[in-house]
Amino acid sequence: MAIKGQKFKRYLEELKLKAIRLHIEEKWTYRQINEHLGIQDKDRMKRWMRKYREQGEFGLLDQRGRRKAYIDQDRYVQKLERENERLKKCLEIWMREKERFTLIEQAANRGEVAELCSLIGVSRSGYYAYLKRKGNDRDAEAKQLISTVYKRYEGKYGYRQLQLFLWQDEGVWMNHKKILRLMQELGIQAQIRRKQRTNAVYRAAERVAENLLQRNFTAERPNQKWVTDITQYRVGERWLYLSAIKDLFNNEIIAYQLSERNDNELVLRTFAKAFAKQKDVTGLVVHSDQGFQYTSHAYHNMLPKVGARISMSRRGNCLDNASMESFFSHLKTEGLYPYDIRNLTEAQRRIEKYIRFYNQSRPQRKLKKLTPIEYRRQFAA
Predict the structure, then answer these.
(1) Contact at 8 Å (CB) between 302 and 268?
(2) What residues have CB less than 8 Å from 10, skipping those under 6 apart?
(3) Other C-beta atoms within 10 Å of 222: how many?
(4) Do 288 and 313 form a contact (C-beta atoms < 8 A)?
(5) Which of 164, 198, 241, 372 is deepest in the core (most CB within 10 A)?
(6) Which DSSP string do the residues of 20-66 spell out, in sequence order?
(7) Average pLDDT rounded to a whole number, residues 286-290
(8) DSSP state at residue 156
């Protein structure tokens, strides 16, 4: 009850709550409550009721001698408890009134959370905290969308490339950090590209050109800078060699050639295809490594005839031709390694399919989220 030995009586919170319940639930008068609980001040019950209506149970706490930080903390806790109780009561009403519940749920799905919170008298942070406590996942729809696109491309891509595919295929632009977080929650990740280290012994070539590119893998117009190289893929005891040319303007593979023999003819046939498509290449810079095909007489005689200039990487420095190396890495990781390829015909089909996909359907961040062909058409328009 009241604490004795003080000039002013101090009533415990339990007594105050009991008095409030007697008045609200049992309909006792203030006079009956004062006589029953021994409250001498006849106006004290009125003050308690006023504070209870304004602040809830927090208004009944004794604030004398308490630090402001503790008072504010208690007020915040009481506020959260009141919001939680309101949400529980509203959910009970919604379950009884199906039609109204459906309307409010649709409002939440449309993103009208502010109107919804105003309707039920709680803050937005309280609403989301309650949903989280109830086990409702706000990102369920986003997770489903990410899983769909991830499976559509056979789980090959990470969060940055998935961001572009979500925009291209679904018209949804989602922050890349959110995609990474949701992928981690879903337990999915991109297929990691294999790291390879090689130690090669080079012998000095007779015809080595200067490095005109200097790792500047950008171009202002088509047919300004090409990069080229050869890669290999093993099927059983046999090898398949791919020679490809990329235009640095839009990263498009403009020509490629497949063969079981790694010789000069492989490179010459690749450039014959490229020059058949691109008639005027005057001033073009063609960059390659110092492979024997690119230091041959035939190669050095062919390019000057069409007005192109030869550029070469430094010896043993693959970073000087990183753009071409990057394409080959994507080709193998996304187009070859995920599949059980048993013969060269299947390998050739997979390579040709991936190059079409790379040119026509794979958006790139450097190309303003467009595919290589779309970017070239935009420039032509």
Answers:
(1) yes
(2) 2, 3, 62, 64
(3) 19
(4) yes
(5) 372
(6) HHHHHTS---HHHHHHHHT---TTHHHHHHHHHHHHGGGGGS--TT-
(7) 93
(8) -
